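**Polypeptide and fold**
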Amino acid sequence: MPNKTNGTVIDISQNCGRIAVKLDNGNISVMDIYNPKSFEIGHIIYGQLDVLGGNFIFNKTTQAEYFAYVEATCCDHETAQRHLLHTLN
């Protein structure tokens, strides 16, 4: 089972329903989230943030659990921005 890690929300796309999370190791993951309005820049997230696919994540800041679908991992800031702004077809 992959390790769980902490991350910090660094960007949010309300239009695409995605958030970008900078992990403790410096990488960035981009994930689809059902209600991105529940997240703010700086929120601390915990879970399998660097594993592609769907899983539950925990927002430590708001003390709430959400289902997320990790679309991209190990991104740099530029790649994360592209994933936030465009839906993948």
